[in-house]
Amino acid sequence: PTPHTHHSILARLSAAQEAAVMGSFPSTIKDGVSSVSPWTTLVQIDNQTSRPVLVFLARSATEPNPEDAIEHSIPANDLYSLASGWLNEPRATLLIRTGANDAKLLRVPHNARVIVKLSRHGLEVESPERGVEIEDFAPAKAIPGNDTVPMVMRGETFDLSNDQPASAPSVAETAVKEAQEAGAI
User: Fold this and answer.
1) Residue 162 pLDDT > 50, yes or no?
2) What is the reported pTM?
3) Contact status, residue 145 vs residue 158, Cβ threshold 8 Å
């Protein structure tokens, strides 16, 4: 078989067949295949917060899992481009922790923009674009996240392990403590 034959076979796989075939390969091979995919979805993540935000690009659109995802740290107050190669699902599948007990699953079409803002208890995720699907994801605590300053001020954290706070303070906790010690808060 020629490379074109292999390509046309892969293009005709159903989502279940793709998952079965791709599931037998290590994630580094899956990442390599998706990076050279002839089809790429570009997503713009607009982080309107003063802290970096973690976004996970799921390797599987049918069974998204943060343990089988590529972590992206979106810089504070920045517009970040994220590329997702695909065979059967043209939308990028993203996971974002939005609160101590909340997370979102996003399915984002090509050239769409996702906006991440601060909310009272974490992050708010929205999009002005049509075709972006945002739904709750469980288990939320499986998705890591960076604490926001408002969360820390309320004693909330993303870093929950068996409902116990993490042993080391988060970056946001350290910033709040330093601001309090300096008399800024």
Assistant:
1) no
2) 0.69
3) yes
